[in-house]
Amino acid sequence: MKRNIVVGQSGGPTAVINASIAGVYAEAKRLGYKKVYGMIHGIEGFLQDKLVDLDRYLSDPLDIELLKRTPSAFLGSCRYKMPKIEEHPEVYQKVIDIMEEHEIDTLFYAGGNDSMDTVKMLSDYAKQTGRTQTFMGIPKTIDNDLPITDHCPGYGSAAKYIASSIKEIIRDNESFGAVKPTVVVVEIMGRHAGWLTAAAALAKGIDCTGCDAIYLPERVFDVDAFVEKVKELAKTRHSIVIAVSEGIMTADGKFVCEAGDAVLPVDAFGHKQLGGTASNLCRIIAKETGLKTRPIEFSTLQRAGSHLASLTDVDEAFCAGGVAVRAAADGRTAMMPVLVRANDEPYINWIDLHDIHDIANVEKKVPDEFITEDGCGITDAYLRYARPLIMGELNPMFVDGLPRHIVMKELMSN
Amino acid sequence: MKRNIVVGQSGGPTAVINASIAGVYAEAKRLGYKKVYGMIHGIEGFLQDKLVDLDRYLSDPLDIELLKRTPSAFLGSCRYKMPKIEEHPEVYQKVIDIMEEHEIDTLFYAGGNDSMDTVKMLSDYAKQTGRTQTFMGIPKTIDNDLPITDHCPGYGSAAKYIASSIKEIIRDNESFGAVKPTVVVVEIMGRHAGWLTAAAALAKGIDCTGCDAIYLPERVFDVDAFVEKVKELAKTRHSIVIAVSEGIMTADGKFVCEAGDAVLPVDAFGHKQLGGTASNLCRIIAKETGLKTRPIEFSTLQRAGSHLASLTDVDEAFCAGGVAVRAAADGRTAMMPVLVRANDEPYINWIDLHDIHDIANVEKKVPDEFITEDGCGITDAYLRYARPLIMGELNPMFVDGLPRHIVMKELMSN
Fold first, then answer.
1. Candidate list A49, A53, A114, A143, residue with the active-site label
2. Structural domains present in chain B
3. Is the ipTM of this complex over 0.85?
């Protein structure tokens, strides 16, 4: 007889990570699990026994639909780094103890690279100590940098938000055109992998000239070449829009946003909080060319823009949650659902399962065939890859003129 | 027999200024005008005889619908300051000459304060010199700072974008909550009037705690009091989200974004291009409180976000264009359609006409009754005023996963 499960969310939120929670809940209930617990603030809250019975929030199907349309982590997120097993086995034992106490058979964890590492280590500990509890990862990251899977839930919606917003920015900038030539530099998230920035290329179409240049962190950023590129563009174009990744680095290994006296804050994993790349580049352009400039940062809007979510992405996130539950019910552990693509157009894909050990801590960068030879453009091969991921819309439920979300009282009172 | 008209757009674009052009075109055609010309880049382009016959773009009703859903100035905009009549009458004469040459009876100009000044001076010149040509303004500004009219087309959509995005930012920030307390400072447009920033207050609701503080340029900004406010908030809340106008000034009359060594660029009207207020405040908070911070600027996204337009706003913008045409056909000149409100809820309003001389160069600030006594909040009276303006949605026409726009080749090739 089926007992209980627990699901948690970790790392930077996305527009559709909640759809995965909805998928976990719906499939678990269908399969006859007794309780579906949610961890409040991921494994960090779980270690403090902060659990919520999701029946309290999701028993009405309307709430499931609202959850699919609510951005960010409904359960709360964290950036908690698990210690090494051999150094602090008691942390792992505590997770097992809390699971036993609540009769939880499986722990599901939705997140990116760091979160999959947590799942890997928990399952390793359980195996080493002969425990029966199982652990499943659920892919989630706007960064799209998990390996094995064709793409990650969360990426399609972020890409749709970025491409739509870039179109609106280009529309705005070209309205002045010749009477006020302006260079707009748009800064997009992505520390080491340029997937999100590449999405700016999707803006190009019959009604839009698209970005004039796109710089990913996969290529060394050369400030002089950048200035030359802008000068060259300015000879023929009045409205210039350039997309850059927050993670671009110069040859000396420094982030462009670290130029000058900037000191970037650092998180629990030692990752620097980036920002200011567009501003720095605008200052350089203004100084070197005299052109009018405008820096724009999408900031957290690009990962929270559920009002512009991709229906394809929402559905895949939902199904990834469901598949993880089904696999756990079948006795699998230490796995993550991966998206497999058979064809670009028509888009034909399915969901498979893969060993978490091949996934944790591996970062998938944008491959060479998606970047043009001059290093500041995106190829058609990328467009064929990305286009299916932004297809379809899931309209928000508007109440009083604004998208309605579903929220946990526990988080709002924070 | 009816001859021709011309319509132009000026100043910062909005999500619905094109709906006014659609309204002008549709009503003019219905009334039997022969040609509806568009000025390319407003009066600046008109003075260079840059006109386009709008039949080329708008004869299919589908194109009218696309135009309603296309942000920014379809015809191109400008920030051209007309000289004083007595100093350069030849500029005014040139406008009249070009109108005569193209058999244009009426010139329609959609814009804000500066643009209404252009309409006023053109109609003054025509009157002084005994011309028969007529001139009509059409209100357009996200800033909502035109007098007489209850509100301005463009404001409702910007307010809807701001409130929706603030909700998503709050959702994102509270997902970390206690495990990573962060102060987010969101910078919103509005040089002297805080209407747009006030819209951040609309985010509050049953599913959202709303902003923790909102600072408008109508009040002197006190940095010390601001830091104290943040410290006070941090005692009870982990996720803090504060909205500030880009135009807030300290008691010495300096913009907060001018602090330090910032030198702001200046436009043709002598207005400084603001930006960096949120970053400056985040630096101050980090230094004075040690709290983690994140600055966010909506930048041009807030005026170009037609994918999240308010249907009420689109309809009013469309009708304002139509009413201006009807009034001109009736022989009126030097007028602007104004929105008149009878009731908040149910929202009952109509469109009247008002003398442009009472409107040009007058800036309507946020009244005292919309600002709380402590100077960092918004009252319920404002919410009753603003709520009707963000009601309803006009979904984009999505093609290949992105909103489709209608564009003039003349602007794209810029």
1. A143
2. 4-154+306-362+391-412 (3.40.50.450), 158-303 (3.40.50.460)
3. yes
